[in-house]
Specification:
Layout (H helix, E strand, L loop, with lengths): L1 H11 L1 H13 L1 H5 L16 H9 L2 H30 L4 H26 L4 H20 L5 H15 L2 H13 L4 H30 L3 H18 L17
Length: 250
Protein backbone atom coordinates (compact mmCIF):
# COMPACT_ATOMS: atom_id res chain seq x y z
CA UNK A 1 0.00 0.00 0.00
CA UNK A 2 2.77 2.48 0.84
CA UNK A 3 4.62 2.41 -2.50
CA UNK A 4 1.21 2.37 -4.17
CA UNK A 5 0.19 5.46 -2.22
CA UNK A 6 3.36 7.25 -3.31
CA UNK A 7 2.46 6.38 -6.89
CA UNK A 8 -1.06 7.77 -6.40
CA UNK A 9 0.35 11.02 -5.03
CA UNK A 10 2.71 11.34 -8.01
CA UNK A 11 -0.14 10.61 -10.42
CA UNK A 12 -3.13 12.42 -8.88
CA UNK A 13 -1.69 14.82 -6.30
CA UNK A 14 -2.02 14.35 -2.54
CA UNK A 15 -5.66 15.47 -2.21
CA UNK A 16 -7.02 13.22 -4.96
CA UNK A 17 -4.84 10.37 -3.71
CA UNK A 18 -6.41 10.81 -0.27
CA UNK A 19 -9.90 10.59 -1.80
CA UNK A 20 -8.92 7.44 -3.70
CA UNK A 21 -7.66 5.84 -0.49
CA UNK A 22 -10.86 6.91 1.27
CA UNK A 23 -12.94 5.10 -1.36
CA UNK A 24 -10.76 2.02 -0.92
CA UNK A 25 -11.24 2.07 2.85
CA UNK A 26 -15.01 2.45 2.32
CA UNK A 27 -15.01 -1.11 0.97
CA UNK A 28 -14.69 -2.21 4.60
CA UNK A 29 -18.32 -1.23 5.23
CA UNK A 30 -20.02 -3.84 2.97
CA UNK A 31 -17.36 -6.45 3.78
CA UNK A 32 -17.79 -6.14 7.54
CA UNK A 33 -21.52 -6.75 7.09
CA UNK A 34 -20.67 -10.29 5.99
CA UNK A 35 -19.09 -11.11 9.36
CA UNK A 36 -21.24 -13.24 11.65
CA UNK A 37 -21.06 -13.20 15.42
CA UNK A 38 -23.08 -15.32 17.80
CA UNK A 39 -22.04 -14.46 21.34
CA UNK A 40 -22.95 -17.04 23.98
CA UNK A 41 -25.82 -16.14 26.32
CA UNK A 42 -24.77 -14.69 29.69
CA UNK A 43 -24.33 -17.21 32.47
CA UNK A 44 -25.48 -17.00 36.05
CA UNK A 45 -23.09 -15.23 38.46
CA UNK A 46 -21.18 -13.75 35.51
CA UNK A 47 -19.02 -10.74 36.29
CA UNK A 48 -20.69 -7.47 35.27
CA UNK A 49 -18.94 -4.76 33.28
CA UNK A 50 -18.81 -2.51 36.33
CA UNK A 51 -17.27 -5.27 38.40
CA UNK A 52 -14.75 -6.01 35.66
CA UNK A 53 -13.77 -2.34 35.45
CA UNK A 54 -13.45 -2.05 39.21
CA UNK A 55 -11.28 -5.14 39.36
CA UNK A 56 -8.98 -4.05 36.52
CA UNK A 57 -8.58 -0.42 37.56
CA UNK A 58 -7.68 -1.53 41.07
CA UNK A 59 -4.85 -3.69 39.74
CA UNK A 60 -1.44 -2.05 39.35
CA UNK A 61 -0.47 -4.35 36.49
CA UNK A 62 -3.35 -3.05 34.37
CA UNK A 63 -2.09 0.54 34.61
CA UNK A 64 1.53 -0.44 34.03
CA UNK A 65 0.56 -2.27 30.84
CA UNK A 66 -1.54 0.69 29.70
CA UNK A 67 1.29 3.18 30.27
CA UNK A 68 3.73 0.90 28.47
CA UNK A 69 1.32 0.74 25.54
CA UNK A 70 1.23 4.56 25.54
CA UNK A 71 4.93 4.44 24.70
CA UNK A 72 4.30 1.96 21.88
CA UNK A 73 1.73 4.28 20.32
CA UNK A 74 4.04 7.29 20.60
CA UNK A 75 6.89 5.53 18.85
CA UNK A 76 5.05 3.81 16.02
CA UNK A 77 3.05 6.86 14.97
CA UNK A 78 5.99 9.25 15.26
CA UNK A 79 8.01 6.92 13.05
CA UNK A 80 5.13 6.12 10.71
CA UNK A 81 4.24 9.77 10.16
CA UNK A 82 7.60 11.54 10.32
CA UNK A 83 10.22 9.04 9.17
CA UNK A 84 9.74 9.78 5.43
CA UNK A 85 10.22 13.51 6.07
CA UNK A 86 13.23 12.79 8.30
CA UNK A 87 14.88 10.77 5.53
CA UNK A 88 14.20 13.48 2.96
CA UNK A 89 15.78 15.98 5.38
CA UNK A 90 18.82 13.70 5.37
CA UNK A 91 18.94 13.98 1.55
CA UNK A 92 17.54 10.53 0.76
CA UNK A 93 14.90 10.07 -1.99
CA UNK A 94 11.23 10.10 -0.93
CA UNK A 95 10.87 6.56 -2.25
CA UNK A 96 13.24 5.35 0.48
CA UNK A 97 10.80 6.43 3.19
CA UNK A 98 7.88 4.54 1.68
CA UNK A 99 10.07 1.47 1.16
CA UNK A 100 11.20 1.58 4.79
CA UNK A 101 7.60 1.71 5.99
CA UNK A 102 6.68 -1.11 3.63
CA UNK A 103 9.51 -3.16 5.16
CA UNK A 104 8.11 -2.36 8.60
CA UNK A 105 4.78 -3.81 7.47
CA UNK A 106 6.37 -6.92 5.98
CA UNK A 107 8.52 -7.73 9.01
CA UNK A 108 5.55 -6.97 11.25
CA UNK A 109 4.12 -10.30 10.10
CA UNK A 110 7.11 -12.21 11.43
CA UNK A 111 7.58 -10.08 14.56
CA UNK A 112 3.97 -10.44 15.69
CA UNK A 113 3.97 -14.20 15.13
CA UNK A 114 7.29 -14.69 16.94
CA UNK A 115 6.16 -12.54 19.87
CA UNK A 116 2.94 -14.55 20.22
CA UNK A 117 4.89 -17.82 20.03
CA UNK A 118 7.38 -16.68 22.67
CA UNK A 119 4.55 -15.35 24.85
CA UNK A 120 3.19 -18.88 25.11
CA UNK A 121 6.50 -20.10 26.51
CA UNK A 122 7.95 -17.25 28.57
CA UNK A 123 6.70 -14.51 30.87
CA UNK A 124 5.01 -11.94 28.65
CA UNK A 125 5.82 -8.85 30.79
CA UNK A 126 9.52 -9.77 30.72
CA UNK A 127 9.32 -10.16 26.95
CA UNK A 128 7.73 -6.70 26.74
CA UNK A 129 10.60 -5.31 28.79
CA UNK A 130 13.12 -6.84 26.40
CA UNK A 131 11.16 -5.65 23.38
CA UNK A 132 11.09 -2.02 24.50
CA UNK A 133 14.80 -2.13 25.35
CA UNK A 134 15.52 -3.48 21.88
CA UNK A 135 13.49 -0.65 20.35
CA UNK A 136 15.68 1.82 22.20
CA UNK A 137 18.84 0.11 20.93
CA UNK A 138 17.57 0.08 17.34
CA UNK A 139 16.63 3.78 17.46
CA UNK A 140 20.02 4.73 18.94
CA UNK A 141 21.85 2.74 16.25
CA UNK A 142 19.74 4.32 13.50
CA UNK A 143 19.94 7.94 14.65
CA UNK A 144 23.59 8.04 15.73
CA UNK A 145 25.17 5.95 12.96
CA UNK A 146 25.98 7.18 9.45
CA UNK A 147 22.73 7.17 7.49
CA UNK A 148 22.55 5.39 4.15
CA UNK A 149 19.76 3.86 2.12
CA UNK A 150 20.72 0.42 3.40
CA UNK A 151 20.90 1.49 7.04
CA UNK A 152 17.40 2.97 6.62
CA UNK A 153 16.19 -0.35 5.19
CA UNK A 154 17.81 -2.22 8.07
CA UNK A 155 16.01 0.10 10.50
CA UNK A 156 12.69 -0.67 8.82
CA UNK A 157 13.26 -4.41 9.08
CA UNK A 158 14.37 -4.23 12.72
CA UNK A 159 11.52 -1.96 13.76
CA UNK A 160 9.08 -4.15 11.86
CA UNK A 161 10.07 -7.11 14.04
CA UNK A 162 9.41 -4.96 17.13
CA UNK A 163 6.47 -2.91 15.82
CA UNK A 164 3.18 -4.67 16.68
CA UNK A 165 4.81 -7.52 18.57
CA UNK A 166 3.73 -5.62 21.68
CA UNK A 167 0.07 -6.38 20.89
CA UNK A 168 -0.11 -10.15 21.50
CA UNK A 169 2.09 -9.79 24.58
CA UNK A 170 0.07 -6.91 26.07
CA UNK A 171 -3.37 -8.37 25.30
CA UNK A 172 -2.17 -11.80 26.36
CA UNK A 173 -1.10 -10.45 29.73
CA UNK A 174 -4.45 -8.71 30.20
CA UNK A 175 -6.20 -12.00 29.39
CA UNK A 176 -4.00 -13.88 31.85
CA UNK A 177 -4.68 -11.40 34.63
CA UNK A 178 -8.43 -10.94 34.21
CA UNK A 179 -9.69 -13.72 31.93
CA UNK A 180 -11.09 -13.42 28.42
CA UNK A 181 -14.76 -12.68 29.12
CA UNK A 182 -14.25 -8.89 29.17
CA UNK A 183 -11.03 -8.83 27.19
CA UNK A 184 -12.52 -6.68 24.40
CA UNK A 185 -13.38 -3.92 26.86
CA UNK A 186 -10.23 -4.14 28.99
CA UNK A 187 -7.99 -4.49 25.94
CA UNK A 188 -9.80 -1.51 24.42
CA UNK A 189 -9.02 0.64 27.46
CA UNK A 190 -5.36 -0.34 27.31
CA UNK A 191 -5.39 0.41 23.58
CA UNK A 192 -6.87 3.84 24.31
CA UNK A 193 -3.58 4.68 26.02
CA UNK A 194 -1.80 3.47 22.88
CA UNK A 195 -3.86 5.90 20.82
CA UNK A 196 -3.20 8.78 23.22
CA UNK A 197 0.50 8.09 22.81
CA UNK A 198 -0.04 7.87 19.05
CA UNK A 199 -1.62 11.32 19.00
CA UNK A 200 1.24 12.77 21.04
CA UNK A 201 3.91 11.14 18.87
CA UNK A 202 2.39 12.43 15.65
CA UNK A 203 1.67 15.92 16.96
CA UNK A 204 4.84 16.43 18.99
CA UNK A 205 7.02 15.34 16.09
CA UNK A 206 5.59 18.10 13.93
CA UNK A 207 5.49 20.68 16.71
CA UNK A 208 9.11 20.24 17.73
CA UNK A 209 10.27 20.12 14.14
CA UNK A 210 8.53 23.43 13.46
CA UNK A 211 10.20 25.01 16.49
CA UNK A 212 13.68 23.47 16.29
CA UNK A 213 14.07 22.60 12.61
CA UNK A 214 15.10 19.07 13.55
CA UNK A 215 13.69 15.73 14.72
CA UNK A 216 16.64 15.19 17.07
CA UNK A 217 14.74 15.95 20.27
CA UNK A 218 11.83 13.66 19.37
CA UNK A 219 14.22 10.79 18.67
CA UNK A 220 15.76 11.38 22.09
CA UNK A 221 12.31 11.36 23.69
CA UNK A 222 11.55 8.07 21.92
CA UNK A 223 14.74 6.53 23.32
CA UNK A 224 13.90 7.71 26.84
CA UNK A 225 10.35 6.36 26.52
CA UNK A 226 11.74 2.96 25.50
CA UNK A 227 13.62 2.81 28.79
CA UNK A 228 10.55 4.00 30.69
CA UNK A 229 8.30 1.34 29.10
CA UNK A 230 10.84 -1.35 29.93
CA UNK A 231 10.83 -0.25 33.58
CA UNK A 232 7.02 -0.13 33.67
CA UNK A 233 6.56 -3.66 32.34
CA UNK A 234 9.22 -5.36 34.44
CA UNK A 235 7.27 -5.48 37.75
CA UNK A 236 4.02 -6.79 36.20
CA UNK A 237 3.28 -10.24 37.60
CA UNK A 238 1.65 -12.59 35.12
CA UNK A 239 -0.64 -14.11 37.72
CA UNK A 240 -4.45 -14.31 37.48
CA UNK A 241 -6.47 -12.26 39.92
CA UNK A 242 -7.84 -14.09 42.97
CA UNK A 243 -11.23 -14.56 41.29
CA UNK A 244 -9.68 -16.82 38.65
CA UNK A 245 -7.46 -18.83 40.95
CA UNK A 246 -8.54 -22.22 42.35
CA UNK A 247 -10.10 -22.09 45.79
CA UNK A 248 -7.43 -22.16 48.47
CA UNK A 249 -4.55 -20.89 46.27
CA UNK A 250 -5.29 -17.17 46.20
Amino acid sequence: MLPGTLGLISWLGWSSALLALGLLVALIVPLVGLLKDNPPPPQAHEQSLVEALREATGHSGFWLLALGFFVCGFQVVFIGVHLPAYLVDQHLPASVGTTVLALVGLFNVFGTYIAGWLGGRHAKPKLLTALYLLRGVVIVAFVYSPLTIWSAYAFGMAMGLLWLSTVPLTNGTVATLFGVRNLSMLGGIVFLFHQLGAFLGGWLGGYLYDHTGSYELVWQISIFLSLMAAVLNWPVREQPVARLQPVGTA
